[in-house]
Specification:
This protein has helices spanning 35-38, 50-59, 120-129, 161-173, 196-207, 306-323, 332-341, 362-365; strands at 69-74, 94-95, 99-100, 107-108, 146-151, 178-181, 211-215, 233-239, 257-260, 289-290, 297-298. By secondary structure, the chain is α/β, with parallel strands linked by helices. The strands form three sheets. The chain has a seven-stranded parallel β-sheet with strand order 2-5-1-6-7-8-9, sandwiched between helices. A two-stranded antiparallel ribbon has the order 3-4.
Amino acid sequence: MRLVLGLFIFLVVLVAPAAAWIPNDRGQSGVPGGWQQDQWNFMPGTGVDAPRAWDNLIAAGRPGGRGVTIAIVDSGVAFRRSPDLNANRFTRGYDFCARKGRGDDACAGRDRNPDDEYGHGTHIASTIAETTNNAHALTGLAYGASIIPVKVLNRDGDGDEDAIAAGIRYAADRGAHIINLSFEFGSTTFEARQIPRIAAAVRYARRQGALIVGAAGNTSFDEVAYPAALPGIVSVGAVTEHSCLAEYSNTGTKLDLVAPGGGEDAPLLGGQPGCVPQGPHGRTILQLAFTRKNKRFRYPTSYEGTSMAAAHVSATAALIRASGVLGPDPSAKAIEGQLKKTARDLGTPGKDRQYGWGLIDAGAATAPPPAR
C-alpha cells in the first residue's frame, strides 16, 4: 500500500465511442459528463473501457453489477459521510480494528461500526462503487454492486494478522462474491509461513465460493508481496496512464494481471514503445475521497498504487458475474479465467513477469459471446 503525492503534469481528454452510455457525473469541471476528463483509468485506450462494460450490463438487465456483493477488507469505508456513496448499497459491515493496538498488534477492540479513519478504504470503495449518473462527482466501475465494509486497518493504515484473517472470514460468511485486499506486507524477507491464519482464511473464503483479489505491492520488487502471493488470490500489478508498468509496481512469476494504478512509468530493459520513464508522469487515480488531515471530501491526487489497481479488478469481476456471460452462477475460477482471457496483452506476448496476463478490459470481459 503506497500513497504518493502527485501532480498532474498534463491532461489528456478522451471521449468514449458515441454508442456507449456516458453518465452525467460532472467531475472537477462541473460539466455533465466531465468525469471523462478526470477518470482516464475508466476510459477506452488508457483504461479498462468502463462505458462499453456499462452498456453490456445495462443490456443484461444488471446495470453496474447489480446483485453482486463485494467485500472491501481495508481501513473501513466512510459511506455515511461521503456525499457520493449511496448508503443503501452498503450491507452491514464490521470493525476488527476499532482501536489502535500496541507493539506488533496494530488493532485492538471490535465493534459494528467500520467507519474509515484513514481514507484508503473509502477511496477503494469509490473506485468500485461510487454513485454514478447522479450529476455529481465521479463514477464507480461497479456502481450497482452491494458493498460489505470490513475494517482491518487502523487510522495509520496498519493491520495485524488476527484482524485481517477475521475480516476475510467475516466477508466470506456474509456471502461476498468478491473480496478485495488492497494492502501488502512489504518486506523482502516475508514468507507465507508468517501468516498462517490469513492463508487459512483465504482457503476458507475460496471454499465458500469467493473470488479474492490482492494488490501485488508497491516496492518495485521482482516478487509479488503477501498476502497477494498466497495461493487462491488473484494478484494485481499496476500500470500508468500510458499503459506501461508503474515504477513502484511489484512483478514476478506470481503476478496474474495489471490494472490502472497511475504514476510514473518503470524503466524496463530495452525500453517499451510509448513509455516515458523520465517523464512526464501519468496521472494518479482520482475519486471523491476525504483527506486525512481535515476529513473533508475532495479529489486528492495522492492515490496511486497496486491498491488502486486491485479495486479495478474486483469491480470488473463483479461486472463479469452480473453480466451472465459465464452463466447465472459462475465459479470464482471461471471469473478469474475470463479476466485473464480478455485482458489486453502488454509487454512480451503471453503471460510475463511484468504484466501477468495483461491489462484488464472490462468491456471485453463482459461482452456477450458472438451469435452462432
